[in-house]
Amino acid sequence: MNALLNVADLHAWYGESHVLHGVSMHVDPGETVCILGRNGMGKTTTLRSIMGIVRKRTGRIEFAGQDVMAMPLHRTARAGLGFVPEERGIFATLSVDENLMLPPVVAPGGMTLDEIHRLFPNLLERRHSPGTKLSGGEQQMLAMARILRTGARCLLLDEPTEGLAPVIIEAIGNVLRELKARGMTVVLVEQNFRFASRVADRFYVMDHGVMTQEFPVADLESRMGMLHETLGV
Q1: Which of 1, 171, 191, 212 is the most exposed place for a label (fewest CB within 10 A)?
Q2: Cα angle: 17, vertex 191, 123; to 5 degrees
Q3: Strand partners, 17
Q4: Could you give the CA distance from residue 183 to residue 186 in angstroms, rounded to a whole number?
């Protein structure tokens, strides 16, 4: 199988601060890949660099056979990459439905509003509520749903469970499993290892701007000692 996303020898900087030191990874179509690591190890910077938000970078990023390294951000989005940041980026004065309809459809195959409401019933109930009235979990659902409507082929998710109640975390896990059943490709940054272990097919472990481990979900049990030591879980 040809990888949908290929990253090779990726370096990235914030100003003079060298954050990524030769990151290489691949993600196959329909796969859910999770990047594990402590805070400050470069996980979010990896997603932001893949998307093109971090512009000071070197290396190679290919998506669906295209070199997206030199693309402007809007073209990267139109190529089929969708980014859901940890801060979610909900427009507070717009209603749920207005937030959903704001991003353009970039490709065929995006979810309809009816499909989104079935996947996220909370958003149907709150469709006329402004962003300021949503809980943290509802904001996370809205941030994900907004990208799913656009037709993106690969979802880059940054810490989707951060600060959420267990019942909401379980709901987001169910959504990710349904997206996988639909063939969606997901790259997930997560510190909640127990959550990640229920949704991911494969894992990368990141430490100080490099990928130090890569293994499939079938190897989880044999890697637990390393994960406890590396992640403190």
Answers
A1: 1
A2: 110
A3: 14
A4: 10
**Cα 121 → chain centroid:** 21
Question: Closest Cα partner for 124 from 112, 107, 136?
Answer: 112
Instruction: Tell me the per-residue pLDDT of 66-92, one tens digit each, with 9 for 90 and over.
Output: 999 999 998 999 999 999 998 888 998
In the Cβ-directed half-sphere of 173, how many Cα atoms lie within 13 Å? 19
Radius of gyration of the chain (CA): 17
Q: Mind listing the pLDDT tens digit for each residue in 89-119?
A: 899 899 999 999 988 898 888 899 999 999 9
* Separation of alpha carbons 35 and 202, rounded Å: 9
Is residue 209 a contact partner of residue 41, using CB atoms and an 8 Å limit? Answer: yes
Helices 166-181 and 136-148, packing angle to 10 deg: 10
Give the C-alpha separation, 178 to 229, whole Å. 32
> What are the E-state strand segments in 32-78?
32-36, 57-63, 66-67
The single-letter DSSP state of residue 130 is: B
